[in-house]
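Tokens in:
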């Protein structure tokens, strides 16, 4: 297993899962890294990705 993946799993508190299911941790990390390019970030720091949330009784 890639040491970076193992370190990230440990940092995320997945020690038991890493010990019991290392193949699953590696598969999940590989899948997440393969989809990293699909995440888009707003170019305008002031832009919100969704409208502001309002409570039911907001005026």
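Residues out:
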């Amino acid at each position: 297993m890639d040491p970076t993946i193992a370190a990230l799993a440990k940092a995320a508190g997945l020690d038991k899962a890493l010990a019991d299911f290392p193949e699953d941790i590696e598969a999940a990390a590989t899948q997440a890294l393969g989809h990293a390019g699909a995440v888009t970030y707003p170019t305008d720091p002031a832009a919100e990705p969704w409208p502001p949330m309002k409570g039911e009784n907001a005026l």
